[in-house]
Model the fold of this input.
Amino acid sequence: MSKKHIAIDFDGVINSYRSGWHEHRIPDPPNPGAFEFIVRCQRAGYEVVIFSTRASSANGVRLIREWLALHNAPSSVCEVFITHQKPAAMVYIDDRGYRFSGIWPTMPVLDWLGKNPGMRPPTFVGTIRPDASLSNPPSFVPRDDLPDVPSLAPPPLEVEAEEEPTLPPPSLTRPAIPPPDARPAKRSRHRRD
Done:
């Protein structure tokens, strides 16, 4: 039976990445709950893969493994596969991802995401209504406590309003069919003299 894979980014997800990029060291602590989450995934039958641009060299992989050991990660976490490539996985957990849902982001959205790494992409800003159900499908309610997020949708097209079509006057419509008793009697095709 093949395992289900979950790919987890290192910087900003497992490592808190508070001080940004450092080529030859990883000074920041783990994000709370990172190791516990990885262990829960492993116990549930998932194979966890750590991916990071840091892992593009043997030194980068060594730095990640040393950091895991320094922060007392469980042995099963220390032994996960580490790569710099995007592996095939069921789910990707990444602090800089944009969840594509059929709508391409506008340039202001991309700019906002670049300036706010680790923030939820605008497609998920808000909370699901508490009264959501199958008969009342969920919708997102904007939250006031989040920073201003540019609109995800492109600006509306300005279209001139069309006039409503008017119906022709009743005299030009198809005449009503008279009731059967008001119809003239049928004539025979043959003429009788």
